[in-house]
Design goal:
alpha/beta, Spore Coat Polysaccharide Biosynthesis Protein SpsA, Chain A, nine-stranded mixed sheet, 14 helices, 9 strands
Length: 327
């Protein structure tokens, strides 16, 4: 029986934390340890942790350097074969650990398994995210194409490639994914593992901060291939944040065509981030670059829709359209 380590980083999320703790405790799979790493909360978080201390294997509440640092504290103590982090505003669905164990045993070479989540929140329509997609092996290099609370990885990944990068506060999960994708096997599972909560304080709301971190990580991906110089120049010409020195070890095989396709997927997600923040000129610039590189990709991925809206609609009309479509 595989052992799981579940790490919950938390800071001033007492209104959600108890539900998170209970979703772990009530799993029908008992070979796990649950750590809570609190960043010195000033709300009722510590009171809730103490209330449920008998259900928690280890916890601490002290000032830290942010979420990535908090998760690393848990990773240093992890004894499990399989690791995940479950944020204090998300919950595990019943049977999640048992399903994950079955998948890792069925796929002994898999370093990571990921599945689906129910996206929900106050006033938001529930939807299932993380369904199977085309080109997942390339998208792993471009961004994180699945809900993080529905992902699990072998501790071997940390043992062999290191802890999370604490210079990244919004892209540490994507950076870990890249290390996995470049060197190991990753498996998609058509299973629901978690409920992923959206609320006003969610990190998910900070698109441009994700942009900066994800661009830095993707620049490292480009650095890792000698044949990527033309792509690196295009990346720089777009004015994206770059890490010009760091590169990754690569054991899996990728062609120039593979990395160019990953580059297009990365540009596409950057375009959507810029558009969501109403940076329409930047969104339009990225859309035009996608078209210049691959008219076929531009057409298949319907990039022209964003290009048209960024070119001919104003912010008021776009906001009106969003409010209408999200009802």
């Amino acid at each position: 029986m595989l052992k799981f380590t579940i790490i919950t980083p938390s800071y001033n999320q007492g209104k959600f934390l108890e539900e998170t703790i209970l979703s772990v405790y009530h799993q029908d799979y008992k070979n796990f340890e649950h750590f809570i790493v609190d960043g010195g909360s000033t709300d009722n978080s510590v009171e809730i942790i103490k209330k449920h201390s008998s259900k928690i294997n280890w916890w601490v509440s002290e000032k830290d350097k942010g979420q990535t640092n908090a998760i690393n504290k848990g990773l240093k103590k992890a004894n499990g074969d399989i690791v995940m982090w479950l944020n204090s505003d998300d919950v595990l669905l019943p049977g999640a650990l048992k399903k994950a164990e079955h998948l890792f045993k069925k796929n002994p070479n898999a370093i990571m398994v990921h599945g689906k989540s129910v996206l929900y929140g106050a006033g938001k329509k529930e939807q299932i995210i993380g369904k199977k997609q085309k080109d997942l092996k390339l998208k792993y290099l471009a961004y994180i194409p699945f809900p993080q609370p529905s992902s699990f990885f072998r501790k071997k990944l940390i043992d062999e490639t290191g802890l999370l990068d604490e210079t990244l506060h919004y892209g540490m999960d994507y950076e870990l994914l890249v290390r996995a994708a470049l060197n190991y096997e990753i498996v998609f599972a058509d299973e629901l593992f978690s409920r992923y909560r959206l609320h006003d304080e969610s990190k998910t709301n900070h698109s441009l901060k994700f942009c900066k971190d994800w661009n830095l990580v993707f620049s490292r991906v480009l650095n890792s291939f000698e044949f990527s110089e033309p792509l690196k120049k295009k990346f720089a010409d777009l004015g994206f944040s770059e890490d010009k020195t760091h590169k990754y070890k690569v054991n899996n095989k990728f062609s120039f065509h593979n990395i160019e396709k990953a580059f297009l997927y990365h540009l596409q997600i950057m375009m959507h981030f810029q558009y969501s923040e109403m940076r329409l000129e930047k969104a339009k610039q990225i859309a035009k670059e996608i078209k210049a590189i691959s008219p076929a990709f531009y057409k298949q991925q319907k990039v022209g829709i964003i290009n048209f809206r960024s070119s001919f609609l104003n912010k008021y009309l776009i906001t009106l359209m969003r409010n209408f479509t999200r009802r």
